Amino acid sequence: MPYPFPAPSSDVDAFRNVLKKSVNIIVVAGAGLSAGSGLSTFRGAGGYWRRFKATTLATPEAFEKNPSRVWQFYHYRREFALRAKPNAAHYALARFTSPQIRESICAPKSTFTVITQNVDGISPRALKEVTSSVSIPEGTHEHPHIIEMHGRLFDVICAKCDHVSWNINSPICDALAGTEKILEAEDHEVNIPVENLPRCEGCGELARPGVVWFGETPRDLDLIDDLAQNADLCLVVGTSSTVYPAAGYADIVRGCGGKVAVFNMERTSGDEDADFLFLGPCEETIPAALGIAQEI
Ligand code: BJW
Ligand code: ZN
């Protein structure tokens, strides 16, 4: 046997045999899950907005320095996400949430949780859509079907009093209207006064997007740790596995004796340790590996 582990397999039948024995299954998803819906990823060629690296705008410091620019970035992404449609990978994962569908594919009484780093709200939307055709029990606070660990684009949080409101208005405020069409240089940058940016519904102070920036604590970490420690299979879908703590969940699963399957367009950090590696667009590889046809 090669040292330290054999190379990951891309054998779908072998993967299905593992699924058949799996009781607690988690997915750790990233921007690549929504790439097939037309959304940009964070790293690589697509990871720029105007001339800025997306990751440099996803920080509390960037917001403090230039809330107008950061709000324009998030307004652009809100507008895009609102109009984007779930792709075949979102739908396959949503359908897999149905215990009836898993019954013939996984071990009896299996559980399935999608832990997504994405803030675009497309996975919850796909889940809502498929519940009209497949039976899915309501998720609960303790056992949600989807955990949006980096927050949600459509939550707006007060930067002062922490009041949270769900807001899908398009545009979110008059001053941001049309700025999503400005795509290039700094010359065209509109500087919106803070009083015209989104404000807290409660206290009227400046509000911010309800997402988790670098240096902030992701949501539901205790719940996710529990899920990872008890998982016997982890599907790592469309993430570069470079941002922690999400990048560490596959290791936790493996450390507790579970298996890991990576679905990505390209080789990513740590995938050599995975049991399975399915290279290609996840909107093709996920439905194929799970054996779930798109029926929506
Ligand atoms: C396809 C595809 C297709 C394309 N099909 N595939 C060591 C340990 C712990 C923490 C740290 C550490 N070192 C540093 C830290 C801190 C930091 C960190 O990890 N930094 C790294 C850069 C090193 N982490 C944090 O600050 C986090 N907080 C934290 O650690 O708090 C402390 C704490 C921890 C634990 C307990 C208690 C306290 C917070 C991280 C927040 C990240 N925020 C962002 C922005 C969110 C809002 C927004 O969307 O704007 O999250 S940054 C950005 O990166 C975003 C993403 O969710 C995240 C991950 O990116 P993702 O999804 O992987 O995207 P890409 O672009 O990198 O990859 C896409 C992949 O898809 C590629 O591989 C493509 O090939 C692939 N792909 N098309 C399949 N069709
Ligand atoms: Zn407030």
TrEMBL record:
Entry's cofactor comment: Binds 1 zinc ion per subunit.
InterPro entries membership: DHS-like_NAD/FAD-binding_dom, NAD-dep_sirtuin_deacylases, Sirtuin, Sirtuin_cat_small_dom_sf, Sirtuin_class_III, Ssirtuin_cat_dom
GO function terms (MF aspect): histone deacetylase activity, NAD-dependent; NAD+ binding; protein-malonyllysine demalonylase activity; protein-succinyllysine desuccinylase activity; zinc ion binding
Residues the entry annotates as binding substrate: Y74, R77
Residues that hold Zn(2+) according to the record: C158, C161, C200, C203
Active site: H150
Binding site for NAD(+): 30-49, 117-120, 238-240, 264-266, 282
Signal peptide as annotated in the record: none
Localization terms from the record: Mitochondrion
Presence of keyword Transferase: yes
Cofactors demanded by this protein: Zn(2+)
EC numbers: 2.3.1.-
Record's function text: NAD-dependent lysine demalonylase, desuccinylase and deglutarylase that specifically removes malonyl, succinyl and glutaryl groups on target proteins. Has weak NAD-dependent protein deacetylase activity; however this activity may not be physiologically relevant in vivo.
Record text about domains: In contrast to class I sirtuins, class III sirtuins have only weak deacetylase activity. Difference in substrate specificity is probably due to a larger hydrophobic pocket with 2 residues (Tyr-74 and Arg-77) that bind to malonylated and succinylated substrates and define the specificity.
Family the entry assigns: Belongs to the sirtuin family. Class III subfamily. Belongs to the sirtuin family. Class I subfamily.
Name of the featured protein: NAD-dependent protein deacylase
Species annotation: Macrolepiota fuliginosa MF-IS2
